[in-house]
Design goal:
heterodimer; A: mainly alpha; two-stranded antiparallel sheet; 2 strands; elongated; B: mainly alpha
Amino acid sequence: VHSKSPYYILELPPDASVADIERQGKKLLGLLEVGAAKAKTYTCPLGTFSRDDTTVREATAFLRDPARRAKEACLMRLLAIDDGQMEVAVEQDAPLPDAFALGGYRGL
Amino acid sequence: VSAFGLIGILIFVFRIMNRAEGKRLATPTATQWRRIVWGTCVGVWGLGWLFVLFPAWGFALSATGGSVGGLVVAIAFSLAFAVSGVALFSPWPVLYALARRGHARLVCALAHASFAFFRSGETASGATLLAAVALAHRGVSTPAERAWLEARLRKSTRFLGTFAVAHAFACALEARALRDDGNANEVRQWEETARILLGTVTYLSSAGVPEPVRRLAYEYLALDAAREGLWGGVHVPPGLHPAKVHRVLHEWASERFFPTTERKAQGPFRAISPLAVALASRPREPRLIENARDAHLRASRVYVALSRREPVPARDVLNMLMAFDLLTYPEAPDCILPAEIKADDAQTSAVHEELATAIADALSSCDAPLYALPRYGPVSARVHQKVETALSAEWARMMKQVEARRASYERLDGYGEWLEASRVRRLYRRIEYTLGEPAVARLWGQFVYAYCFLGVRLSETLPRMRPLAHAVFAVLAKEAERFGDVENVARQLSNMKITSGVE
């Protein structure tokens, strides 16, 4: 699973059916054809990335294969269940993101 | 008049000395000019004590001239002498205090006027460094200010420690600007450049980098280590008088992670600054993993953080690998693979492979001590193999580059040389940190052959960069000592002695 995962590109959950995949693929291609801004990017837990009609077609074709779809869905469920919104308890050895600001370096 | 007279005398002496050594009469370089001017100013300052300050006080306190006006003149002279004395002999504390208040242009101009680091001819780099520190303290810098720093650094002709630290701060400012723009990949690259340059500075001789600048480099590295969650990096090395911030980090980490008897005797960690308060409020006990779901959630969170190029502590990376080993092992009771995949060995292997590829890619920007895993499972073994392959390929590429340099004997510009020496050392350290000491012990022969070549070339071919060569030999000497390579210890110590000066 990485930012170019077909499920991320199509903005679908890993349990989406083949019909859902085809419908979403067609919808995104239609939006891209009319130049809709919201279709040109997608957001996933790994960040925000760009997409075009080629990547949408590739993602749809990838997920048509049942074996690849099952493997990709399994990886999605394994790796990226955290949507980045969950509260994280700070442990004592956790990174200190504000270290420079706390040390007086407000510009670093 | 006396100043100009002294300058004339010094130039005359300089030329006579050159003639005595059989050299042709060369015009003094900018550094030599700076030394001449400094020497002249010191002479004038010393003579001023004899012929201005003492007589002024004598007149002010004498029975005949003891008036308020005379006293005011004497005090004014005293102040002028004190200020000029600070500017001549110890400008750094004053300039650094000004830099911490964010006055970049002012501090740069004053640094030029006050001969900061003139002994090593690094007045310009010192001024640039102070300007960069001022911008780093003030807040977000503008593109024009960063371009100004870059232009100043490009004009540098002395490539010693102050130059490298100034460059590192300029890189850090660039990284901050990119972070504000949300460009995580490039942020890591700029931060890495700053880190490796400062890492090399820590190996320089005392002539190669002034003590305050070395302290600044260590302070940055300690804060950077804290930001990355690498708490071993906040340690204060023996012989260093650390900056206040560095000392706070060191004391906190010592108390929490390395509680020695000596540390315990000093009493509890005192929270006396914002940084110390933030650290002291952290819980002492680690949060234990409660069940498979918790382990999965945490592992997923770590993977997402790695993919976003966020800093992740080494312990979390190892926990993530162990969790995925367990969660994807078909015979484990906590295995979460779907039944149809679990039943098919080929599919299970394919999932392990994909998982390992994704994690190894994410680990490309964050080092983790994979050798410290207590045991390897289906995912961690594949990740180890992929990371090892990637690092080996990078090492082979690096050695090839050094070989190409050996063949061409081409020299880079000052910054390029600094980057090359720093990158080779960084890759060696990265392999050690990721794969363990046995991995670098196997590469030691190649490393000493390639790195020593870089050091000798820096030391012996023009334009010489002996302070950087000293850092190269210092790295090799320490490694030779660690691996018990007696012959190389003696050789590198001898090289260090030769390159311990500035010229």
